[in-house]
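Hi support team,

I'm filing this because I wasn't sure whether my run with fe (iii) ion finished correctly. The job status page said complete, but I'd like someone to confirm that the output block is well-formed before I use it downstream. Pasting the exact inputs I used:
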Amino acid sequence: MLLLRGATEVVTPSATSVPLSGEAMGIVERHPNADVLIENDKIVAVGKNLESEVAEIIDVSGKVIVPGFVDPHTHLVWAGSREHELEWKLEGRTYQEILANGGGILRTVKETRNSEEEELQQESLIRFKNAIRSGSTTIEIKSGYGLEEETELKQLRVANWLGNLGLAETVVTFMGAHALPEGADRRSYISFVCSMLPEVRELADFCDVFCEEGAFTEDESRFILQSASENGFGLKIHADEFGDTGGGRLAAELGLVSADHLAGSTLDTIKALRDSGTIGVLLPGTPFAILSDHFAPARKMIANNLPIALATDCNPNCYTESMQLVQQLAVFRMNMSPAEALVASTINAAFAIGKTDRGCIAEGWRADLLICDIPDYRHLTYHFGINHVDKVIIGGKIIDA
Ligand code: NIG
Ligand code: FE
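And here is everything the job wrote out:
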C-alpha cells in the first residue's frame, strides 16, 4: 500500500461512466490538503488525515496530484526523422504537397521498413519514456509506417512490447490505411489491408484510417472500417484535418469510438458526432507543427455537447510526447479552460481508447497518478514550457522512466 500524504490539492474530473461533455467538461473536483491511499493498483481513499499502519508513506506536501494523462492518439513507433521538412514547411510547402512528393509519411515508411526490430524498439523506447516523464500513463500507438505486411507487424509487435515493460500501458491500433504506398494500385492495396485484419487482431484492439484528400476517400474508409468492425476491432478515424471532407460524417454514420483531428468539421458534423456518441480527439500539436492557425473549433464542440479528448499525435511531423504541451496549446490556441484541458487529457481521453477504469482520482479507480511540483493545478497550463511532473505512479507503482 502507498499513502500519499499532505498534497496541496488533489484535482480530478468527477467519476463518470460516460465521457464528460458541455459544461461538465469545465468542472473538476478540488480536494485541498488531501491524502490518497492506494492498495495494489487501485485507489482506496481520498481525503484528509488518512491513516494506514502498513502503507509506505510518501510526503507530497507542496505538491498537486492529478490523474495520469492518457494519450489516445500517437504514431510513436517509427524510425528516422524529418527535421528537414520543418525547413520545407517554413518555405511554404504544405503537408499534402510534401506527402504527394514522396516525403512525409512515405519518407518515414522507407526508414521504418529499413530498420531492424531491435533498433525500432530502442528508438521508440526513448520517446515512450519521454512521454511517461511528461505524465502519460496510458498511451495509444498506431502502426502505419509499414504499409506492407512485415513492417506493419513489426511496428505492432514493438507497440505491444513497450506496453509489456512494466512502464505505461499501451493500446495498439492497426493503421495499414495510413497512406497509399508508392506505386500501389488503390483497390489492391485496400484489399490487402482488409486481408491483414484477422491476423492483426491479436496485436491490435483498434483499426484507424486516414480519410483525407491524398490518403483514403470516404467510401474507401467506410469499406475498410466496416471490414474491421466485422473482425472485432474498435474503430477510429483521422478525419477533417484540413476541411469537412466526409470523414467526420462517416464517423457519425458508423458510430466510431473516436474521430480525430476535426479541425475542419462544420457545425452539422459536430452535431452528428455528438448524436452518434463519438468522441472528438483534438490534436492541436498538428496545426502548430504545420505552421497553421487552423485549430479545431473546441468551443463550438463544447457548446454543442460533443465530448472532446486531447492527444499528442506524436509522429515525425508533429514531434512531441508531451501532453502538458498539448494542454497548453488547447488553452492558448483553442480557448479551452485549464479544467477542460485536464478533463480532455484524463477521463475523456481514456474513454476515447475504450478504458473506463482510469482518468479519475476516487475510490475504486486505477491508481495512475501524477505528483506535480506546482502550487495550483492551473499552473499545468498557465506556466508553460517546462515539465511539472515530479513523480509518476502507474498501477500503484512509482515509475522510474
Ligand atoms: O495524424 N495525418 C496522418 N497521420 C499523422 C501524421 C503522420 C506523419 O506525418 O508521419 C497525423 O497527423
Ligand atoms: Fe495521427
